[in-house]
Hints:
alpha+beta; globular; Alpha-Beta Plaits; 4 strands; 95 residues
Amino acid sequence: MSAYILASLQITDPVVFEEYRGRVPAVIAAHGGRYLVRGGSVDVLEGDALGNRLVIVEFPDMSRLKAFYRCSEYQPLLEIRNRSAISTLLAIEGV
């Protein structure tokens, strides 16, 4: 069953964030992930806006998603993201 990362980001340092944005796709792909949504305009239909950037990544299953998130290649990128954005990430199991 597919699994998804829904990331809501408030970019605080666009220059530093560019390094993350440039390096993370290869790590995602290495774990079977693919972008469904990566930025783009957002129209809030209800509730409060989550951030200024939304990303949705699909993985083949939850174990591959978690392997990506915990892998040694991603950890330095996670530090870069944490320095350059305020983030909320959700791991969602599909149906």
